[in-house]
Structures are given as C-alpha cells and as structure tokens.
Design a protein that fits this description.
Layout: E1 20-21, E2 34-35, H1 44-53, H2 58-69, H3 83-96, H4 98-101, H5 113-125, H6 148-154, H7 159-191, H8 195-205, H9 207-215, H10 230-236
Antiparallel strand pairs: 1-2
C-alpha cells in the first residue's frame, strides 16, 4: 500500500482564521457551511455534510476536500465520471473566498481547445462571467467577446501602457528602416556584385578568401597595382 503524502494546505489558506466558504455550492441558498484548512482530508463528518447538502456524489466530495486542503491534487477517472462538473464546483468555492484569500486570476489549462471551451462555457452557465480566453481556435459562440484580443481592445490603457506601446512602435519603425537599408544593400549586391560591397562580409565570414583577393592587389615587388580590384576583374569574366 502506497504511503499517503503529507501535502500542506495552499499558502493562502494557512492564516489562523481562514475558512473555505462552501455556501456557493450548497443546494439551499440559505445554508451555511465552511471548511477549515486543518480538517483531515478523510474527515467523514465534512464529507457526509457535503454529500447531503450539495449535488456532488461521495467520490466528488472527497475529491473536492482534497483539492481545497492541499497545495496540489491529482483527480483522475474515466470519461463521464464528473471531473469537469467537480472542477466547476471547485472554481465556485475558490471565487467565493477570492477576496479573503487574496487570490489573483485563476488559470485554467486544458489539453484541447474544445475541452477549454466546454469548461469556460460551464463557468459562464453558472454565472461566472468574468472570463478571459487566451488563444485562438475557439468555436464557441458563448465565448465570443471573451477572447484576450477582443477584451484588450475594449480596455482603457494606463499612462505607462500607452508609453510602452508608443515606445514599441518607435523601436519597430527603427528596426524597419535598418532592415530596409540592409535589404537594399543585398539587392544591389545581387544586381551588381562589387568588391566594395562584399569585402567586409568576406573578411568576417571567409577570411582566407578575402586574404587571397587582398594579396592579388600587389605586384611581385610589393607595390599596390593601380587598377580595378581583382574581385571586380574576376567577376567580369
């Protein structure tokens, strides 16, 4: 039998008076139920309470408690066992204590685009509208307008964000000028190769070839010949 790992509660749940409010997933809206981070994950009392007062079955209740009371949890099962349904309940509990725990955005990662669309659609279906989908290839009509690119266009930028955008465009324009200049140089070299255009490239990339052309500029007595560069003479033939 494998030993049970001693995994501590999440950092945000280690405060002396912190409790997970479970009211968001209870059948009766007037009920009140909370879960202490110090509760054992196999506590039958809280699992019995959850099973009786929520729409989760016993296995899902145990998984929910384990997911809330541990820094990380691995929940597995065949298709149709309610893992996604459990994930929606887990998300509702986390969002209900978001302010008390000081939680930031919650990231949901799925294996396929279809699975991500389905999960986010379920969140929207239970009233969680503040959703931003990152990435393309979404086929969901429900999530239209919730893609990051669409949401960001409707948001007002801060002063620092406007400055960074302007600075980025300036850098892009300068890079474009530099690239255009280099492309023009390459095109002119392609149309009419000349020693003046190629000698720096040969010197850095092919020093032996460069040395041969440089050496050919001098006669047997060591005097520099007054004529066109040897490369230019060579290319003509």
């Amino acid at each position: 039998m494998s030993p049970v790992l001693d995994i501590p509660p999440p950092l945000y749940a280690r405060g002396a008076h912190f409790r997970f409010s479970l009211n968001a997933i209870l059948k009766n809206a007037d009920d009140d139920l909370a879960l202490s981070p110090n509760t054992p994950i196999d506590d039958h009392t809280i699992i019995n309470e959850l099973e009786a007062r929520t729409c989760l079955d016993r296995g899902q209740c145990r998984a929910l408690v384990a997911a809330l009371l541990r820094e990380f949890a691995f929940i597995q099962g065949p298709p149709g066992m309610g893992k996604s349904y459990l994930g929606i309940h887990l998300m509702r509990v986390l969002l209900s204590c978001k302010s008390e725990a000081g939680l930031g955005p919650i990231i949901v990662v799925c294996y396929t685009n279809h699975a991500l669309d389905q999960f986010l659609e379920h969140l929207v279906g239970v009233g969680i509208e503040k959703v931003i989908r990152i990435g393309g290839r979404s086929q969901s009509a429900i999530l239209e307008g919730k893609n990051l690119s669409a949401v960001s266009q409707g948001e007002t930028k801060t002063g620092s964000e406007r400055y960074l955008v302007a600075k980025t465009y300036t850098n892009l324009e300068e890079a474009e000028k530099s690239i255009s200049k280099r492309l023009g140089f390459l095109h002119s070299t392609q149309r009419r190769p000349e020693w003046a255009n190629l000698k720096r490239h040969l010197a850095s990339s092919y020093p032996r070839i460069h040395a041969q052309f440089e050496f050919a500029r001098f006669d047997d007595d060591g005097f520099e010949a007054v004529r066109r560069d040897c490369f230019d003479l060579w290319i003509l033939h």
